[in-house]
What we know:
Layout: H1 2-21, H2 25-32, H3 35-46, H4 55-70, E1 74-87, E2 91-97, E3 101-103, E4 105-107, E5 119-126, H5 129-133, E6 144-147, H6 159-163, H7 165-168, H8 170-176, E7 181-185, E8 211-214, H9 216-228, E9 235-240, E10 243-257, E11 267-272, H10 282-301, E12 309-314, H11 322-331, E13 339-342, E14 350-355, H12 362-372, E15 378-383, H13 391-396, E16 399-405, H14 410-413, H15 426-444
Parallel strand pairs: 5-6, 6-7, 7-8, 11-12, 11-13, 13-16, 14-15
Antiparallel strand pairs: 1-10, 2-3, 2-9, 4-8, 5-9, 10-12, 14-16
Helix pairs in contact: 2-15, 3-10, 10-15, 12-15
Amino acid sequence: MHKNAAALVALSLSVSTTALAAPNHADIALDKDTIAWDFVEGITTEVGPRLAGTEAEARGRSWARDWLNANGFVNVAIEPYMMGSWMRGTETAEIIAPFPQKFHVAALGGSASTGAEGITAEVVYFKTVDDLRAAPAGSLQGKIAYISHSMTRTQDGSQYGFAGPARWVGAGIAASKGAAASIIKSVGTDSHRNPHTGGTSFPAGIAPIPAGAISLPDAANLERMFAHSKGKPVTLKLVLTPTDLGQTESGNVVGEIVGKDPSLPPVLLACHLDSWDLGTGAIDNAAGCAIISAAARHVQMQGQPLRTVRVLFAGAEETGLWGSKAYSAAHKDAQKMAVGIESDFGADRIWRMDTNFGASNPDLVKKLAAAVARFGVAPGTQIATGGADINIVRDQGGAILDLQQDGTRYFDLHHTPDDTLDKIDPAQLRQNVAVWTAVVNVLANEAGPIDGK
């Protein structure tokens, strides 16, 4: 009995020592991670802006492939596809009357060209997209529609859904009513004289028109001009000369940390590698790719996980989710994903976790909540729907987890020249990596099914 007791004590001490010696890489990431910073600093410095379908995006893919190979990932590949591409040209906007002065403008993705001579026309003011929708058919013939909104800062970024239609569909509605061109108040929350770009769209059968966004201070000035003009027309000269490049090649970059049991459905971590071309794409979305790849590496360094962890750096998200759609089309029938998570909301701290499997797998949700609580992350009550780059998981009806980041300042920077490396807070970036590491470690070592819904 004495010998057995001694043996048990020795075994207990051995297990305790082993447990103490085994590093928890979520905690290490919080204090010491440099992997994510290495990625985002490197790609924004050595590649810079990565507009979809361009040579710069191709250099970004090659850079990311080499980085993954150098950082312990296997099965690294570039998966190409073709897509329609667009590139900006000259961009000027100038009030001709009654109060002549210049504005700062950026073409929206998909905009048509005014031609080098530009368009000079009366501006018609619409306070909201719904006001534009209510305009009579043909009432904008030969005129420039100006579309405003009242977006404000929110932690969860929900005002983007409220204000975004001004950009997403405003130009198409204006075109359908005969407008020669359209401009919008930038969809953002800053006070800088920087316009916010982004994609716009046109309904089937409606020819694209020139479409731009003016900076928020210029938009406020324009609206004051209407108040001061005493009924006189406000006339704008707009020059936008983007080029439709036709079909060009884009692609997704993929890599894996291979699990002990490759027959189990993998954990998919996604981001998008492309960016708009005004800044260097640091918060949108080099930071997201940095976070997911750093988390995968920390999980690997903690010991080979049970499940394979796959990273997807999707291409051409900004101009139409081309990469996400192509990845799903290529892989959705090959193997079901266990769960999908995306990072695409900058690099500020994560504060909430949502899933779509709270009802089907409450024990797993409790385990995940316990793993992230020490990082200041609370379980949410929303049903996770996932980001733009995990179409494959939605198409498969799979499990989704959303790690909600603080978006209070995100739309100050979104799609602007201010989207640069200096806007990333290294401490908040590390908190993201820590939370992702804790979550991915739980999911990648979950032996049972992870069922969505």
